[in-house]
Hints:
Elements (H helix, E strand, L loop, with lengths): L38 H15 L7 E2 L1 H8 L3 H13 L3 E4 L3 E4 L4 H25 L2 H20 L2 H18 L3 H16 L11 H16 L3 H23 L19
Amino acid sequence: MPEEERSPALDPQPVTEPRPAQQAKRLALDALEGTQKTLTERAVAALRAAIVDGRLRAGELYSVARLAAQLQVSRTPVREALLLLERQGMVRFERNRGARILESSAHDLDEVFALRLLLEVPAARRAAELVGEQERTRLGEILDAMRDEMDRGDESAFMEHDKSFHETLLTAAGNDRLVGVVGSLRDFVRFRGATTVGRGRDLRAIYDEHARILDALRAGDPDAVGTAMRDHLVHTRQLLLAAAEPASDMAGPVDPPWPVRMS
Length: 263
């Protein structure tokens, strides 16, 4: 079979020994249903997924040759995929050694959430002023899907709906570029493997925070929507910083040094 058509599962063992809980998981270069992707794009997706779920561990070094062997493709698409991930700040190439999965420092996370507070709080208020019935219905459907995945205990599927909730709300604010910028900030945290689940809150708590945002939106109260969004982001920030640097003072309450209201 030509290389461009192959999408095999691969040996679950990375360059370094995987955690026992991850040994049963398998990587694959499967393209998304209904899409056409190059090997490089498919390798990017596979490597990102492995970073998120811990099969490729933060701080560890992986050789291009071993990853390519596991993915059962040539080194070229894997090297190109890693270069793309390096530009996104997820990995760092080390000369003649391979690529190291980067860890998120408390400072990195703090910068990301300072930006998210600056962008998402006023955007949420703006969305509350502009949102129509179609968007409210869509947000309700997403929240229902989050509840379903919460009941199943499927964190990965739950967080995909979480992402959709934020994207839908930001889209309602009428700024497509903002959706992309915030999506990149979310991906930075997600692709570094950072999560708050099991670190002071569970899926129910995350669901409840989103439910408060939607309740305020349905009530037509922009200030309450902004407050609920801010509380959600601040809480997420505090938990991630506490996990990244338990002894750091950065995990305390935060207010960005710039205004967050949108006139």
